Amino acid sequence: LSPVEVYRQQHEVTASGDNVPAPFMTFEDTGFPPEILREIHAAGFTSPTPIQAQTWPIALQSRDIVAIAKTGSGKTLGYLMPAFILLRQRCNHSQNGPTVLVLAPTRELATQIQDEVLKFGRASRVSCTCLYGGAPKGLQLKELDRGADIVVATPGRLNDILEMKKIDFRQVSLLVLDEADRMLDMGFEPQIRKIVDQIPPHRQTLMYTATWPKEVRKIASDLLVNPVQVNIGNVD
Ligand code: ADP
Ligand code: MG
């Protein structure tokens, strides 16, 4: 077996799709800028988690991914690192709207994601706004007005703000659906579809889910283009 095959077997990684690149088995393999690697080392991380190792090289090729993995596998940095790299390449003005949109099921999750953006995106000077329900819109709209490279949002609140025409999605080139199965369980499918309708079609889409039932497969086939499917562990 080749080192890549050994790695995939040991870490229960399966990947299917066209020309799947080899995993980045070490942080040095990633080619991330030194100031990003410094943040990672400062956090005490010694190697990429299997989902990071396998999805980073695919995401950096601007390809769509559906990743099926349990919680605690390091999915957040799995999509945030490629987002930071994209933001460095694009040099978009955050005043004109976000470049990256992350959808997550709950306020708790959305704020956790924002915390990771602020921690690991500092070196890349990434700005981020978090939009969720159960809190007044005013402050969130004010923050949005200041401009954000990354918007992290729950689908309900984001859809409200979209209907108020308070957010411009024309620059969005990376869409992330985190915990897609949970968002569908919570009944957010109509809002997700309305939001996605506003995003330019030439985007990259990354979808993460812990389970793979037919509702999730359906939305994946509607929203992703020729994705690589990555499974970590024995998820069905
Ligand atoms: P998931 O979204 O898959 O549930 P998270 O992204 O929340 O997982 O990550 C779980 C924990 O692992 C977090 O505390 C995160 O900071 C940590 N973590 C992420 N990447 C690594 C890594 N490469 N090495 C060690 N810990 C990591
Ligand atoms: Mg997560």
TrEMBL record:
Name of the molecule in the record: RNA helicase
Ranges spanned by the short sequence motif Q motif, renumbered to the chain: 25-53
Transmembrane segments: none
Top-level taxon of the source organism: Eukaryota
Domain Helicase ATP-binding: 56-230
Ranges of residues in domain DEAD-box RNA helicase Q: 25-53
Residue numbers of the full-length protein present here: 432 to 667 of 1123
